[in-house]
Amino acid sequence: MEVTYDANALIINGERHLIFSGSVHYPRSTVEMWPDIIQKAKDGGLNAIESYLVQEAGLYAILRIGPYVYAEWNYGGFPLWLHNIPGIELRTDNSIYKNEMQIFTTKIVDMVKEENLFA
């Protein structure tokens, strides 16, 4: 798969695409429910989902790696270990926070690259 873009759209394998995305929050359902939920999202017109198992349904995936992922979860979606770092101030221009998020984000991106999951 080749993905590029211009000022108007994403270009996937030479064709312009608008991404219609929705989120599927896996903690709110059981594993057995996921394929049906994903299929219903596809049937409803989505072509991307911010979650898991979407390739099997022929959808694009949007990887949400943070640092602020899911506000409804405890600690506002931030990794809990951030709380234990001396001098950190979340949601600010704090250099400690930005450095830790750079390390965390780079780790996730490298893991996805290793698994060859990027288009």
Automatic annotation (TrEMBL):
SUPFAM superfamilies: (Trans)glycosidases. It is an enzyme of class 3 (hydrolase). This is beta-galactosidase. Gene3D superfamilies: Glycosidases. InterPro entries: GH, Gly_Hdrlase_35_cat, Glycoside_Hdrlase_35. Its EC number is 3.2.1.23. PANTHER family: BETA-GALACTOSIDASE RELATED (PTHR23421). It catalyses: Hydrolysis of terminal non-reducing beta-D-galactose residues in beta-D-galactosides. GO terms for molecular function: beta-galactosidase activity. Belongs to the glycosyl hydrolase 35 family. Residues 10-53, 54-114 form the Glycoside hydrolase 35 catalytic domain. Pfam families: Glyco_hydro_35. It comes from the Eukaryota.
